[in-house]
Design brief:
It is an enzyme of class 2 (transferase). By secondary structure, the chain is an alpha/beta fold. It has helices spanning 8-26, 83-97, 100-103, 131-144, 189-203, 221-225, 238-250, 263-270, 303-309, 322-332, and strands at residues 35-37, 47-55, 58-65, 68-75, 106-113, 119-125, 147-152, 155-159, 163-170, 173-180, 209-213, 231-234, 256-259, 289-294, 314-319, 336-344, 354-361. The chain folds into 2 domains: 8-41 and 186-361, Rossmann fold (3-Layer(aba) Sandwich), CATH 3.40.50; 47-164, OB fold (Dihydrolipoamide Acetyltransferase, E2P). It is globular and about 65 Å long.
């Protein structure tokens, strides 16, 4: 939604337009009106990535004009980014401006921050990193109170930790999350907290088990595990699986089994089409699944996965693409009906929206 007006009134107008679009897409399914969770208008984004652009002998933060790699937009402040990112940006720029060891062939900078106040900065280079860089980066990390990662031609040098730790409160309990550099995390922490609490309430207290597909670093897995007997969660990304396993241990949660499988592979396993060594120590027949939770990529669920989730009395679905959400619901609508709907404005000032639905067997 391109717009040069970033006033509160303009934000509400955009949010209402998103709500209308979601309601229109779900109208044919007689969905209830969505519960709407707004975002802050500024300082909501916890991560940011900038190219660096040389002009008049200085490197500047920049983003490229869409479709035009030759026309940079030079940036001094980035209002949609977290307050911490905006505090770090000028201090980092001053550091590279006065240090050849830090600035030589530096071409990209990435920030990852948390609501809990942690930060990790990734510096990307077109050269090998030497001892002079390591000494300068170590001093900078101490000065900024951050972790720093240097990336150079497939090599990675970590000063501090290669992850940040986020703390999110769900239903009065604080969960901690390791969020590794380069792995997917929800960019809008405050709205993510709304998503977690909505999913927790939508699921309700159950006496049976939960199957989760696309579990990532365990963002939803941790709080939802407190609502069921036990959880079987799957994720294909190795870095996300490692983070999720660490998060289970850090939060002392013991009723979750995590398996590195794609949704398609798990479908094959549950249908007994294939056996997987990664499931060798898991008795699938011991689970009494009452709910399946899915948070798929923008393409949505493939038809076979849709047929798999149809088996469950409850389908809790978080979507980053309302069009593929509607397509998936259309495939499920002969057996399930929508009983709860939500809109989460993860990405203010854009067309993108996150939504949630609870489908229950008719």
């Amino acid at each position: 939604m391109p717009n040069s007006d970033y006033s509160p009134a303009a934000y509400l107008e955009q949010l209402h337009a998103k709500q209308a679009r979601l309601e229109s897409l779900l109208h044919e399914f007689n969905a209830p009106a969505p519960q709407v969770f707004a975002s802050a208008e500024q300082n909501f984004r916890l991560r940011a990535e900038f190219r660096l652009w040389r002009e008049e002998g200085q490197r500047h933060y920049a983003m490229m004009t869409p479709g035009d790699k030759r026309t940079p937009i030079l940036i001094e402040r980035f209002p949609i980014a977290s307050t911490l990112i905006n505090q770090l940006m000028p201090r980092l720029k001053e550091a590279w401006s006065t240090s050849t060891a830090l600035s030589e062939r530096l071409f990209q900078v990435e920030f990852l921050t948390t609501l809990s106040g942690e930060a990790l900065i990734t510096l990307c280079y077109h050269r090998p990193l030497d001892e002079a860089w390591h000494a300068a980066a170590t001093a900078l990390a101490q000065d900024l109170n951050v972790s720093i990662i240097g990336r150079s031609r497939g090599k990675r040098t970590v000063i501090g930790r290669d992850y940040v730790v986020e703390k999110l409160e769900v239903a009065g309990r604080v969960f901690t999350y390791r969020q590794p550099e380069g792995a997917f995390t929800q960019p809008n922490g405050a709205v993510n907290t709304h998503m977690l609490n909505w999913a927790y309430e939508a699921l309700g207290a159950q006496t049976d088990d939960l199957l989760e597909l696309y579990c990532g670093n365990g963002n939803f897995t941790l709080p939802l595990s407190t609502r069921v007997r036990k959880v079987l969660a799957t994720e294909i990304s190795k870095s996300s699986v490692n983070a999720a396993l660490a998060n289970l241990a850090d939060n002392q949660i013991e009723n979750i089994e995590l398996v590195r499988l794609s949704a398609e592979e798990l479908t094959q396993a549950l249908n007994k089409v294939r056996e997987f060594r990664r499931l060798a120590n898991i008795d699938l027949d011991s689970y009494q699944f009452g709910t399946v939770f899915v948070d798929p990529p923008r393409a949505g669920m493939d038809p076979d996965t849709c047929e798999l989730v149809r088996r469950f009395p409850r389908i809790l679905y978080i979507s980053c693409n309302p069009d593929t959400l509607a397509e998936n619901i259309r495939q499920l609508s002969d057996t399930h009906k929508i009983t709860k709907t939500a809109l989460f404005d993860q990405f203010p000032w854009t067309d993108h929206m996150e939504s949630g639905v609870l489908l229950e067997r008719k």
